[in-house]
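Example (one chain per record):
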Amino acid sequence: MRISANLGFLWTEYSLPDAIRKAKRAGFDAVECHWPYATEVQDVKQALEETGLGMLGINTIRGDLDKRENGLSALIGRELEAREAIDQAIHYAIEIDTPNIHVMAGLANGKTAHRTFLENLEYACAQAAVHGITIVIEPLNHFDAPNYFLQTTAQAKDIITEVNVSNLKLMFDCYHVQIMEGDISRRLESLLPIIGHIQIASVPDRAEPDRGELNYQHILNTLGGLGYEAPIGIEYRPTGTTDDDLDWMRNLFNR
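Predicted structure:
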């Protein structure tokens, strides 16, 4: 099974282009990141071409970090900013041939926020579809992301059903889903038709994925049995530097 290094957490002491090179040397098959916008797109493109790795996904911006914002697309009255963030992500994704954009909902609740999120997702999907890009939405757990609008896979499924377009999918982060809902294997099986990307990390500490309360060997075997072939996103916070402990690659992926 192929694996993708999430450079939002891995090799963060390096520039994004150098982190891409580190991921290649470590044996990853692809990369993904959170917010690449501070890095010149040509520098990222050069590193991707040099290594032969693909950048699988990026996120829309969080908003005002001084106010601890965590996305814009469900925020009432912020539609113009949300769509500017979507446009920014699409433009960057086109330049580096990235197939997925995570549109971040933000801290909100209620029916009006739900409608706002749907309308912004409809905009994002329409703009992205022209370029063959998939929009993904990700439920976040309420310990790491208190008051985040999207918290469960059931809520995400309802939104995906309402928007009803082929390029809106679920980002299934096993770490978040285990904390909020559990029953990972059955949820993967039932939600597989709408899953656009899968990520893993240990629970509850979000560290290297070969430890903690989840048996990822079982989960990976389950995915293999379901015929899932896309790269698995490795999105954990290293307990030291990233290079300190890559034994999980051998333990889980025979690398």
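Caption: The chain has one domain: 3-253.
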